[in-house]
From TrEMBL:
Gene3D superfamilies documented for this protein: 1.20.1260.10, 2.20.28.10
Domain Ferritin-like diiron: 1-129
GO MF term (any one): oxidoreductase activity
Name of the protein: Rubrerythrin
Organism ancestry: Bacteria, Pseudomonadati, Thermodesulfobacteriota, Syntrophobacteria, Syntrophobacterales
Organism (species): Desulfacinum hydrothermale DSM 13146
Amino acid sequence: MEEKRKALMLEAFTGEARAHFRLLLFAQRADEEGYPQIARLFRAVAEAERVHARNHAMLLESVGSTEDNLKAAFETETFANQVAYPKLLKEAWALEDKAAIWFLSSARNAEERHARLYKHALEDLVAERMPVYQVCSHCGWIEEGEAPQMCPNCNKPRDYFIRIGD
């Protein structure tokens, strides 16, 4: 019964998490097209979907201690970089889809960086260091400290970076 419940809740969590993000993209498009009232509705429903996803995740007991979460995140990013994205890239190359190849390569590179950041964060637990992060809004690359002049992953300028922290 426990395995069945876990499978059900994982499916529900995945669906709600996808819906949340998709609705945020819909809201962004509605804003771009001059429909702020529709964007507001999409954001409201996206927030409700986020609540649903959080509730499903609680039943999955998928959130452990911070140390356990860092280890799990490191393993997930490492798997994405070393297994998942190479498989997807192989298929994109076979299709000769340049856009897919670029986005998948960019994401794979960022995932590798994310894994290193998680590893550093595990070390920071002991040192109690609290770095500031800069996230490239185009490709997802993350830098610690100040944003670089150009993103090392996609070459977008510094103003594409979003500061996370003080």
